[in-house]
Batch of 4 targets.
Target 1
Amino acid sequence: MADTRKASRFIVPVAVAGVAAATIGLVPALAASGDPDLPEITAQQLIEKIAASDTQTLSGTFRISTDLGLPLGGLADLGGLGGDGGSSSADPTEKLTELVSGTHTLRVAADGPDRQKLTLLDGSDEYSLIHNGDDVWAYDSKSNEVFHEKAPEGEGVKGEGVKGEKPSAELPGTPKQLADEVLKAAGDTTSITVDGTAKVAGRDAYQLVIKPKQSGSTVESVKIAVDAATGTPLKFTLASVQGGKPVVDAGFTKVDFGKPAASDFTFEVPEGAKVTEGAAEKGAGEEKLPEDLAKDLEKGFGDLPGFGGLGKDGDLNVIGEGWTTIAKLDTGAPAPKTDEAPKEIQGLLDSFGDKVTGKFGSGTVFKTKLVNALLTDDGTVYVGAVTQDALVNAANAGK
């Protein structure tokens, strides 16, 4: 399916299906009595089916629940995450951070690469995000604020360059080739299987299950419920080895693959609403930042100011592979002494972290259900989607 770079980072209608398909190393719904009786299919055939899906139109209701296991109510509580408090409350980069915690219901609609709409329902208030041709609009009914930004011009179809130019790197040309690449990338670290069928939003679906073969990962499984008729991912579930609620449980509760009405994507600024223009409207010069940043990332952070060659000749090292990959960063500065902080701050830090010791010395492990980080007292950081024991073992091995 075609997409536009800037709009697609906002648009969840396709994002829901697209993320699941693109991160095929991850997801399904839990099986239950009355599961549909479908023809048998292998994991490779199901991956091919997802890759061959040409779903361009859909509408429905989507429910997402996120539980990172943070001791506070969510990331939004951590001191103003998502912005500086001075921008529009309708700005998608701020508003959609709400999806990282709690349970939310969304109405979604999509009509090809140029028209998508998402409405986040929060009691009597609504937040709408609309991409219609050259424009991206967002409206927050609670504050009566509007955010507007022009969609980028000249974007090619996925797998092509700008204005239809050939991509610089050769991509898999058929669903089978893509499936082969996915299975090859999984290698010895990952198990990919089909685990029965399920009913999702009234649709018959296969369940694709991805699990780490390695011990030490915080990921128990990633499951994707795939529509048997269209190959469209309908539900995504990421489970932690800690058990309990899934880290992410997102899926359609209602879905229709018919073409939505054109009026669904029209937007008129409500009377009296405050309108904020996005960066693209303020000046084309600002658009260079992502491209320049991408180039620096490709160089391994080598030329970024203040990073001193991290990831190349500097202090960032990668330990292990696959699901148990750990990043090691030597900050060069001792960790702050929390016992010298006010009691309120000490209590907050203690709620996030566990004190640990080993051959490396001592430190604190800061934990969520998915990503954990060990900060040693000498200022070395170990971080990854791995267990506390795996971080401690990596620190011990580094001594």
Target 2
Amino acid sequence: MTDSNVETEDAPKKASKLPLIIGLVLALVGGGGGFFAVYSGMLFGSEPASTASAETVETSKDALPDVGYVALAPFIVSLTSDGPASLLRFAAQLEVPHEHLDEVERVKPRIIDVLNGYLRALSAEDIESPDALVKLRAQMLRRVQIVTGSERVSDLLVMEFVLS
């Protein structure tokens, strides 16, 4: 009996990697199938993706959004730096849903005050980079939406932006 015990202790069995490989393959197939089901709209979709996109194209061609524009009077702002450009002339218009035009028109002085304060804090170096207008526009729109409410102003259109 002692001889048989010696043989089993010397040769331990090596664990098989087959269950690990099968589990990994099944996880990849399941993940890919789940992604496809959600992406194609089979899961969590109220209607087929092709019908929804066709209706969106039809409505976007026929009707423009019902918006109006509130013009902000042009104003000149002195910049904080002592560089060659020390003045900024700025004019903008606000894109507003038609039902909120009167409300936004009433708070126009507060909007101009907020924009004036923000633009005065800038230096010429902040404005001179090529992508500065995009960043400044986003910052100004966010400040205007805080004053008016986010659903009242949908966009800020820069009409004049001149450094002198």
Target 3
Amino acid sequence: MRYWTTEDRPAGEQFSYWREVICEAFTPLAAELPGARRTGRAYAHEIRSWVRSSRLTATNCAEVSSATQLITHGPAEVRRTVTDHVFVNLQISGHCIGTQAGRRCVVEPGGFALFDTTREYGLEFVADDRSQEWRCVSFRVPRARLLPLVADLDAATATTHDGSSPGLARIVASTMLSTWNGLDALDPAGGSDRLRDTGRADLDAGLRAAVNRYLAAHLRTGDTSAAAVAARFGISVRKLHQLYEGTDRSFSRTVMALRVDGCTRELTAPTRAGTLTELAARWGFADLSHLNRVFRAHHGCLPSEFGDREPAGPCTPVPAAVRTGSIPGRPPAATIARRP
């Protein structure tokens, strides 16, 4: 059983943490609080939320509690989704307004609806007035498992099934709830003694990986300064730098290493276009001298020497301890891997 909670996070970090939680526990998703819009600053909203999640054979089961918000699985999230699943969401408290394939449904407590991760969808969860939370139990089912069971799966999503009315919907809702409540007995890996907070270390690692993917995709076209990246992920600059503490590279050295990797890929491409000065400019270096210093710190030779050493091996790699200690400036003379 995995468990995440925002309770032990500072208020200013809770929402950004929560966005990473729902992606880790479910599928790539984007979340937005009521009336919130990006202003270039980190979100400062407090949001009390938790997720309990456990696997049962090929299905993942989870119970979620949070505050009113809009959760979307848009074009960018669909592109990032690597597995095809259908979510069957049973509402416990509050209600959900779901949209997919041009359909709109309202799911009240006791009802459920299906949403397909291969297509875009939106979930507007609205908290109960008294408890100020909504809760649902969600089953993530492999899409291939449902195709033989549902006559037209594409037409079955974003449609409310009322579990309070007699019929098949009531049986499905009751089975979902009893399965979740009895999961510890069904799953040997479950049990309250195995319940653990996977929040801080796992989610920091997940957030750091997401930042690294964003950096790699935007090195040449976007603002990769610490302030801009922190705002993009809804965290403080201080928190961004903390994500890299205890790793091989700081945030700034990670950015620089990714720039070097980009230059290296171009230098090893079958065809190369432009001069080294243009290469330096494309990958965000101040000038060719800057590229030369950083490139030699990483690879032990200059970019101009790099291609001449193929295919036997471009350069003598510089040890990681030296490399991480030398960026962005020149490493100590005794530690540079020099040519014979």
Target 4
Amino acid sequence: MTDEAVLNALREAARLSPENLPLRRHLADQLLASGNLSQAENEYQAALALSPGDHGIAIGLAETLVRQGKNEAALAALDPLLAMPEHPVRAGVLAAQAMLPANRMAAAHWYRYSVARDPSQADPELAHRLGIGQSSPPPPSSPSPSPAPAPAQPPSLIPTAHSPSVVPAPHAQPQAADGRYGSADVEPTAEVEHSPVTFADVAGMDTVKEALRMKLLLPTQQPELFAAYGKRAGGGVLLYGPPGAGKTHLARAAAGELGAAFVNVGLADILDMWTGSSERNLRATFAMARRNRPCVLFFDEVDALAARRSDMRQAHSRQIVNQFLAELDGVDEHANEGVLVLAATNAPWYIDSAFRRPGRFDQMVFVPPPDTVARAAMLSLMCRDKPQAKMDFDKVARATEGFVGADLKGLVDRAVEAKLHESIRAGRPIPLSTGDLMAAAKTMRPTAVREWLGTARNYVLHANESGAWDELLPWLRDLR
């Protein structure tokens, strides 16, 4: 019987007995061996549906995907296996093949780790493509050298939310002489600042300012009154709203208003490629804030550090969230006293609900697009140190509906540039006028407010069982 005849017989048997797992797997293996990759993929998928936890089937499916160049799908199939403490070695080699086109460094790491555990899985051709020296095992007659020690933990994959490509994930840190991985004494990269900005430099946002005063400013100014009610300075506030609405500026102003230290934490200050380092960086950053209390600790784009754990495929990412929650709670009830943790995000609906529990970010504050009065005040502040004629900021504010602070800053910059060209030609400073701002406004469009409100509308109307987004309702009435 020819190979094709055998395959046809197996296909017919599988059609008549679709729940027969060994038969389906055997058919998939035969199709893979014969190079019928598309059919093999379908059969492995069917077998995996019958037995979702079967490692061999998952590896077979990944191999068919890799050989078809479907590397993203292959990594998705391998991901549950690679998350295991002792993953199947063949899965690691296939992961290296799938990762090679996008990330040679991570692919080489996976290959070395896997072959160190089982030299029989060495693939000289793959090793050559990875730029690794001869990796094939020595012949049986020669003494076998001891394989290089494997890393304490395997590398892992982190799929980003914004890109389908695979990026290198945290690897195990090189082991120190004392047997530990990495250093326990981590110096935070975020720096302590003292902000010259106060609430006087923030136009509008009276409700937001009042919320911040109650959290940190007033408990410090009137400690006896607040102590009588068991309230202490500190806590957590989550600022959310459209991009460019002034959340970072507001955080700096809160620190300046109190005269507190200000620590602006970026993603690069926390996230690290080594396993465990991101958590240590978080711990060190909170420790620094506690040493400098009263302190405003500000996390921008916090959704990258506090995303919903149910959406995460990697245990490492969930551990960062867990560490963040632990730091917000503190080792005791006084641990974070005098530390106001502010966080800002454009996408609050992606943040894990555990962060909104009382004692953490228990207050969510919407930072809205500025209204006409606020826009006029903001324009006045932005122009106060510039040569200007008599200005009608109210007129410009009415012409800039939908503009946020970043848009207004761009408008003023554009008007100033035009006025500078005019002043250079005249040989003297020419005052900025209302007409200059109006001319600049005609050349600009608001950036992201309507788009952001359109996204928010979906959550307000369809995912608001808890009432968390009721504050946005008035802003959606005029949205068409």
